[in-house]
Structure formats: C-alpha cells, structure tokens
Amino acid sequence: MPEVVIAGAVRTAVGKRNGGLAGVHPADLSAVVLTALAERTGLDPALVDDVIWGCVSQVGDQSSNIGRYAVLAAGWPESIPGTTVNRACGSSQQALDFAAQAVLSGQQDVVVAGGVESMSRVPLGAAKAGGAPYGPRALARYNDFEFNQGIGAELIAEKWGFDRTRVDEFSVLSHERAAAAQDAGAFTDQIVAVDGVTADEGIRRGSTVEKLAGLKPAFRDDGVIHAGNSSQISDGAAALLLTTPEKARELGLTPLARYRAGAVAGSDPVLMLTGPIPATEKVLRKTGLGIGEIGVFEVNEAFAPVPLAWIAETGADPALVNPLGGAIALGHPLGGSGAVLMTRMLHHMRDNDIRYGLQTMCEGGGTANATVVELVS
Question: Does the reported pTM lie above 0.85?
Fold first, then answer.
C-alpha cells in the first residue's frame, strides 16, 4: 500500500473579528502561508501538482476559486493549479483528505492542502444572501425544522445532560490551556507573521465560570449556549505539504507524520454536530487502532457540548483532548480551521514525541471528518 507523508505545516496566527488580520485580503492571507510553506521546507513551488484550498463563504473577497488566486498571490508559477473545497467547517480537513487521496492513487506526487477564512471581511452566512440552501423537500423531511447549529448544540447539551456550569467549565479550561501553550511557546514555530500579528488573538486570560455566568444565552432563553462557550469568529489560514516518502527523500524534505487514514460520516442534521462520533469510529476501524492508542485528539470546539459529547461516547481521556485549547479560546476561521488544527496537532506530536494523533471536525448539515496521523521519528 502506498504511503503519504506530511512534510510541512504552517499557519498564521488566528485573528479575532476586526482584529489584526482583518485588513488582509484572504487571497493574500493564503499567499503568506503558501510562501512560508515553500521557504520552510525548501520546496520548489514549480513541483506542486495542485493546491487544494478550503473556504466556506465563497462570496465577495472569497469568491471565484480563491485557491487559484492564492497561488497567483504567492507568486508561484502560473502553471500551478488551485481549487477550492467547501465541506463547511471541515473544508480544509477535507482538502487534506483529497490531497492524500491524490497522492495515494499515484495521480499526483506533491500536493499542498490548506484553507482560509476571513470572517471579518466575509461575514458568517454571507453566502446565503437571503436564500435558504436546504430546499422545501429537505425541510419537509425534518418537519420544517430550520437547521441551526446553535440549536443543535442546545439539543446535544440536553441529550447528554450538560448543564450551564459544565459547558462553561469546559470553556474556561480551553482558555487556560491555550494561554499556557502560548506562554510556553508551543505555537511559535508553526506561526508565520502577517502584518506583525504573531500570536493568536482570541485567548481571554482570567476567564472564569462566574464571569461567563453573566452572558445571555444566544439561541434559547433558557438555554446553555452563549458567546463564551462557542467558537470565536476569526480570520486565519494554514497550509500543509503532502507527498510520498520516496519523493520526500528525493527532494530533501523532512516528513512530520504519515497520513494513516481519513474518514467522513453523516449524522442527524437536526442535532447536526454529533458527526465526529461516527467519523471517529470509522477512521479507527480503518487504521485498526483503539481509542487508547491515540496520544492526542483535536476535536473542534464549535460549541462546548460537541467535544463533551464526543468524549462521553468515545471514552477518550479528557486530558488528551485539545490539550492546547481549542476554538473557544483560539478561534475558528471556518475554511481554514481543519488545516490550522492539523498544524497545531502535528507540531504538538513532534514536540512531545506522540506517535498517533486524531483530528475530527463537526460540520454544518450533519457531517464530520476524522483523520489519523502517525509521527515520523
């Protein structure tokens, strides 16, 4: 069976809404990480067979195939193509999976995967432009329920019995872990500076359950979900380099990890955000690994109940889940988040000699990606 290795991973810092990255066009933001990826690995961009780029709100500054315009903005040869992927929040994780499949198939040798989202410039929901993507038949199938991620998060909290205190405690922990990681320099090597922004902007130091108790519920008057236990609106980009072990040796590249397997799963679109549970089961079956063999998990913190329910169902050690904090503290630049999380996880695995890592991402519409990677010593 052919192998795929990830031979480079770089990201921007994640900027908060209207923060330090808000003035940067998303194509230029993408170009920064593409340029840094080539420089840090020593790769000649002319050798890249394709650039597969995740982006969710593909309108305005992010319209018309931003993957291609990222290549041009980076100054890479015009012969290098680019394409743009949308699997909601998992777009750049799906880009990684597509890139791995292209290399595994033997159709391509060197592929760059990643993604971007500038939520300051292209607001969440902008692509709908007053329309409804579901259509009457899908709505009728679910008794005209208006699909809503926030309501889904409320339903998950209700189903698994997570009260306001529990979800807020998880959110505080996310900020504490992210602050500790930032202070320890855990993110320094993976981040490329953009307009002087070198650190993730969303971390709220000194966050407490008592402070969060003052925030009003966002989706139900008697609900538990609010701005403080939800992912942050953010700007950011990340890029990953995939190739074969043989090609890596030929080009003098140093692999970080082997791509072991990827999986995608569908789930109840009303709950919407439980897909990481079956996706995790699916990818573990593919690898033959047990949950106890994984040394680190990145489970995107779209809302606090999502990783909490995932932990409850999988039996994963909570100490190994999002050990550097997650989207509640570090932000969630939609189409870029899959590659951002993978970059964080790969560097954490390298820095701590962790053999296996698993990343999973809930997505709008009730789907989820899961990916397992193995450290290359």
Answer: yes
